[in-house]
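Researcher: Let's run the pair from yesterday's discussion. Sequence first, then tokens, for each.
Model: Starting with the first of the pair.
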Amino acid sequence: MNQAWAATNQAVSVSVNVGVWDAIWSASLVVQLTLLSLVLLSIVCWAVVLSKRRQISRLRRANAPFLEFFWKANSLDDIFDAMKDHQESSLARIFKSGYLELRKIADSNLVSRKSENDKAPLLTGSDNLERALRKASDEEIAAMEFRLTLLATTGSTAPFIGLFGTVWGIMGAFQKIGATKVASLAVVAPGISEALIATAVGLAAAIPATIAYNHFLTEVRKMDLEMSSFSSDLLNIAKRNFFQG
């Protein structure tokens, strides 16, 4: 009886191979699909990370010269005429929205004069200008936050997807134990290996996605503060020079 037990153990131990690629190729279809989905999710997340990095870097490079030009310009008309040189700047786009709204107000019936001899018109309806600036800022924020939800979703769900592969691999290991009636390492190891690979791939997809999401969210908040500050400055300039007190 002892000889039969040893023979069974020896036959099973021959098939043990705990290499990563061997474990993946020998995994069940469900585990392989789980790993494939995690790898594809990770590739898409890295593409989003590179895209967002370029987008924010481009905005920072474009905003700095526009802001310098804005404070040195003699009039809002001069700034608007130079818009073609600052098309990549989010601050320039906010200024353009505010300037066009200011011209709409000037062309509307929201204009009054202090006296008949006063040639400088005064405007009313600064709320319209404030709403236009806020809308332009919101559009810029929405563009910067676009696809960031994919990073957040990957960071929060990839570990659970990997856990699903883990559970499935452990279930397969227990099924093999039941089928062979042998609880040796040769029977349990392949299933455990599949389980660990699924967990590792899930964490490998989730950790960079979470770090990148927090990083870009911080960058978006900084840009939001910068745009809010610029909008407030532009609104104050407009109120001081064009609106009734």
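Model: Moving on to the second of the pair.
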Amino acid sequence: MMKHPIEKVLYSVADEVLGKLAFIFSFPEHERAPMNTADAVAASVSFKGPFDGNLTMFISGAVLPELTGNMLGVDDASTTEAQQFDALRELINVICGNLLPRIAGKRSVFNVSSPRIISRKPGSPESYDEESLISMARLTLEEGECDLCLFVRGRLPDGAIVIREAENSNGQ
């Protein structure tokens, strides 16, 4: 069960971008516990604008060769770790770039930082803070899992998502 309208948008954007950019099919797992990060790679992108925060993505390490191969149009086995990290940074950048206008409206302007790999080892990244976590999407992929966490510092503008959904559906 989705708890917040932003969660619905996060699932939708993640599914669209994974499918269109990386040709990876994803399935929502709303009730699944957060993934085991022991074999995961995490990437994060920060943003500032009508609200500030970051989007962090944990993805099973086993998925990276396929994801990278699909994005680059090369054999999965020939991808290097550097290419895999570049692909993951590009993926989270595109997800964030599609997510923020759907939350805040197309006219809102955000400064988005360069995405970075924040963790290759078990444990939580330094940016993990449950108090600022406003939405999480848990996805199952063919070869692993993916969790997306949206952190916001402070509060979202009151009613922003409701107003912005109507604005976006009208093409504004």
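Researcher: Give me one sentence on the second I can quote.
Model: Helices lie at 5-22, 64-72, 81-104, 160-169.
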